[in-house]
# Entry
Amino acid sequence: MDNYFEYMVREDDELTRVDKFLAQVEPELSRSTIKKLIEENRILVNGKFVKASYTVKARDLIEITEVDFSDYEITPKEMTLDIVYEDNDVLVVNKPSGLVVHPAPGHYQDTLVNGLMYHINTLSDVNGDMRPGIIHRIDKDTSGLLMVAKTNKAHMILAEELKNKETKREYVALVEGVIKNKTGRIEAPIGRDRNNRLKMTVIATGKSSVTNFEVLEVYKDKTLIKCVLETGRTHQIRVHMAYIGHPLVGDFVYGPAKTNEFGQFLHAKVLGFTHPITKEYLEFSVELPLEFRNMIEKLRSN
# Structure
């Protein structure tokens, strides 16, 4: 497993010592381990080594390297799951905003995978022990539909369909500013930001990325849109909308939001695919989360 991980400090976490901050966000690391990592210059803040007494500031990028997480065991955990569809081969779940999809440093016991492992006896292991059943993912602070594979055969077929751009994925997003065009197509390559490893960016050396959007409603200073993905890059909609000057409302990383108590207003509303075994086309749609609906009603009333 990757032994590098990173955090971006939020506004409500600033003015805290870096060692105390890391102890809060990474409970798997003991205070003595954090102290040792700092002494051995394995912790960087904005690319520079710091002392344990350093006070973190909003948007500080904290990086930790050379930590061995191979001994961690991923265990089932009972949690309420909004399962939209399930049979012997596949499952479709409606993920709430705030829930991490699969285990990673800092998130071992409270992810969607932990909940799936409690609910289901068998999940595909194509993507390894850390991501059983997971064919594709959505960000922690994005809500909506995900398909999950129970068997390796189902996983391979669905992954191939996804790769061939045959899976239907429609998102609803609330963005900053007024978009004057009714429709748009953003075709811009996306890759890792060289100055901030937590972020993706439009960059010439990135992977081909295409997002199509349609304006659904226009408000005083915001716009509700539908996005249809042709590719599935990390943070694609968030990066592309910020690139054209309309970042997602509530996006702490790519937009002006200082906090994201709910998360960015992005919802994977529609998911359609061909069943890997029966070959029947299945399509599912779920309504927007309550917080999202309340925000829209508030904007409409203004």
